[in-house]
Amino acid sequence: MGWYDDLVVPYCIELGCGTKELVPARERVTHGLHGTVLEIGFGSGLNVPLYPGAVTKVLAVDPSARARHIGRKRIASARCAIEPIGLDAERIDARDASADAALSTFTLCSIPVAERALAEVRRILKPGGRLHFLEHGRAPDAGVARWQDRLNGLQRAVCGGCNINRDIRQLLERSGFVIESLDTSYFPGMPRTHAYMFLGAAVTTSAAS
Predict the structure, then answer these.
(1) What is the pLDDT of residue 76?
(2) Cα 106–chain centre separation
(3) Is the pTM of this model over 0.90?
(4) Which of 129, 134, 142, 188 has its CA 20 to 30 A from that of 33?
(5) What is the CA radius of gyration of the chain?
């Protein structure tokens, strides 16, 4: 991780993803979490105040120690145990079938090979466990999508490897998940290239069959 990704990007994420306007969406995506939760892209713990009371432990995966430092007060006030278990969502140090649920918010856009991370989530989820997700990605409108493709290289360079043109639904389905619920919309007040949101829950194909 270079100095820019270490010193600048975590603060940008805190500001950009920590707005009060996003709290209702975060409340929706965390609803129903329970027991032990695997959270990839834990960051500075922006979801911590919103975990339901039924959550007893969070297995936190994130590459940035600085992000955890930024959110240290938030993390210290958590009502459940927070256990950092690694830096790389593509290789997670956790036992098979050890999490009751999983959570990903604004994370699948920036993992280099997101399919590998989702394979790890599938491995760690207990049978029937759900992945709750809130992500931004590829818009359905052709004109917006073309601009997403044009801007994606710059976005990756400036925003810590974040991609704005990944189709989140297709990514989940290719990775062996079945979408149980999904809401999509443009988030107001943002450029449309960055504002198309996917909010929902998915189970593994084995659990759905």
Answers:
(1) 96
(2) 4
(3) yes
(4) 188
(5) 16
Average pLDDT over residues 89-110: 97
Residues with Cβ within 8 Å of residue 172, at least 6 apart in sequence:
118, 131, 133, 179, 202
Locate tokens 């999904």: which residue? 182
Question: Cβ distance 136 to 108 under 8 Å?
Answer: no
Tokens of 197: 């949101």
Note the pLDDT tens digit of each residue in 112-148: 999 999 999 999 999 999 999 999 999 999 999 999 9
**Angstrom distance (rounded) from CA 117 to CA 122:** 9
Residue 181 pairs in a beta bridge with: 201
Question: pLDDT for 171-198, tens place per residue?
Answer: 999 999 999 999 999 999 999 999 999 9
Q: Which two tokens stand for residue 78?
A: 């958590």
Distance of CA 7 to the CA centre of its chain: 21
DSSP 88: -
Tokens in use for 171?
């990514």
Task: Starting at the earlier edge strand, list the strands of the sheet with 35-40.
Answer: 81-86, 55-61, 35-40, 99-105, 125-136, 196-204, 177-186
The dihedral of CA 207, 80, 15, 22: what is its sign? positive
Contact 66, 10 (CB under 8 A): yes
Question: Please, which pLDDT band fits residue 9 given cuts at 50, 70 and 90?
Answer: confident
Name the residue type at position 203: V
Mean pLDDT of the chain: 95
* The two three-digit tokens of residue 17, written as one number: 């993803």
